[in-house]
Known about the structure:
homodimer; 5 strands; globular; 32% helix; HIT family, subunit A; alpha+beta; 5-stranded antiparallel sheet
Amino acid sequence: xxxxxxxxxxxxxxxxxxxxxxxxxxxxxxxxxxxxxxxxxxxxxxxxxxxxxxxxxxxxxxxxxxxxxxxxxxxxxxxxxxxxxxxxxxxxxxxxxxxxxxxxxxxxxxxxxxxxxxxxxxxxxxxxxxxxxxxxxxxxxxxxxxxxxxxxxxxxxxxxxxxxxxxxxxxxxxxxxxxxxxxxxxxxxxxxxxxxxxxxxxxxxxxxxxxxxxxxx
Amino acid sequence: xxxxxxxxxxxxxxxxxxxxxxxxxxxxxxxxxxxxxxxxxxxxxxxxxxxxxxxxxxxxxxxxxxxxxxxxxxxxxxxxxxxxxxxxxxxxxxxxxxxxxxxxxxxxxxxxxxxxxxxxxxxxxxxxxxxxxxxxxxxxxxxxxxxxxxxxxxxxxxxxxxxxxxxxxxxxxxxxxxxxxxxxxxxxxxxxxxxxxxxxxxxxxxxxxxxxxxxxx
Lengths: 217, 217
């Protein structure tokens, strides 16, 4: 009845420290990992990585929402060598963010094993950061694969969507719009800039706290 | 304009090999990680881990769906030292599975950094396995945190839900029931046993293919 012996140790948690010896483009995507028609590839290509534990100030050109011009302004909340996250331009609620791999990966099954682990790590970090930044403690994580599953942009992405307590009617609107029907509001750019700054700061807090936790082990 | 240098290497992909020197209970959850009223903790407690690359045969007592008796039968598709996955007992479609951490973690923000990476890794593996086992290439991943987000069992879990092309009516039923309203069908136990066996086999195929990919690097 006893299971076979099993290496039950979890892989080590990577350090968040910068390595001044490595180039920012190590492990970077090759051209074949980019789709020139994909809006999320465009976002990836114009926002270079920064240290999530020490984000640049809002005034930095590295975070300028107009870098994606003439496409809609993009409010970055995370930009690592492998992942980017930003505010959804048609949010279902305040703090609705998207997390995706930097290279073009149509579906979740197209990411590499290492990328999938990195997505999992940052999904928790972003969730904690969005909760702290919005003050809303309940939220949904949604990730759609393929047209039948209501995927619109064919570059895989997780939605993190805060769920303030809603009256039933708004709640029904939520479930109807989550899968691509109904109305969603457009992002107000001033509010978005302020919110993105707050989320970047809470991401940094969570990443630094995780680093201290690991250092204690 | 250039970002600071950044250690851009992804953490190494862990090996799936068994380590005969380690105990299956290394890193196991302490009692404080278990909630005696939680159905998913009950599932975790009665199904020991097995090697996902080499699952026991369906006839093995390790996989007996009645291990959760008198709670509903449970059709396990993955059982590692840190995670369990099983068929949803009220599936929205054939192949609807749940993935959760073995210890009691109410929300995604309650998992450890290492657990979050492991969840990310297996979310991709399970997605690939469910696609292969059902022949349905589109699917949703959903994870609800808190009552306002329609979380029912307060032990965090990802839903992986195949989305065969549906007529509009069934599609609307899907969006309405995803967040806890409306009717869902109960699992047929004979079909479930056959499906779980198929998914365990496709999980093993994906895990072994990943291992070969890593060995080639």
